[in-house]
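Running this now, will post back.
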Amino acid sequence: MSATNGVLAEGIYHITFDWPVFFSQLFAFGVIVYFLMWAFRKWMTPLMKKSQDVIAQQLEESKLASSRLAEAKQAYDNALAEAQRELERMRQDAQEDAVLIVAQMREVAAAEVARVRRQGRDQIVLFRKQVIRDLQAGLTATVLAQTEAKVRDQADSPQVRADSIERFLEDLETVANTPSIVRRRTQSQWN
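Update: finished.
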């Protein structure tokens, strides 16, 4: 292999090295690579830049959404804590109201019990008075009936009539024979 004639391999392949062709092909390869780089920069770089901008924007939106999510979570936690405090306050108010209502109901019930007792006592007193009046009226009627029956029995007997007339006549005699003071006393006995 001699470097002067440019043959690299002899035989069936017979490869030779031609410097002008090599440089022309190298130049053509450089032009093609340059064109591809230029085309890549011209058409692909804006697309990549656009994609990178979209990705950067999405990252920014993601960070913003993440911060909004954190704020929303904080607001939710605050609202939940406030709701818990409000619920506890409402529960406490309801319990205080229930205690107050129970106390008022007890007072009303005690007043009602006192009123019913007082009314019951008044009715018992009225009923007692009515029973006493009825018993007195019945007793009086019975006593009068019994007395009337006894007086009739006694007055119907001839001996009692005679005694009664005798006594009356004696009283008249006494009145006629006594001074005026005794007469007044005797007359008052007849009345």
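The first strand starts at residue 7 and ends at 9. More later if anyone needs it.
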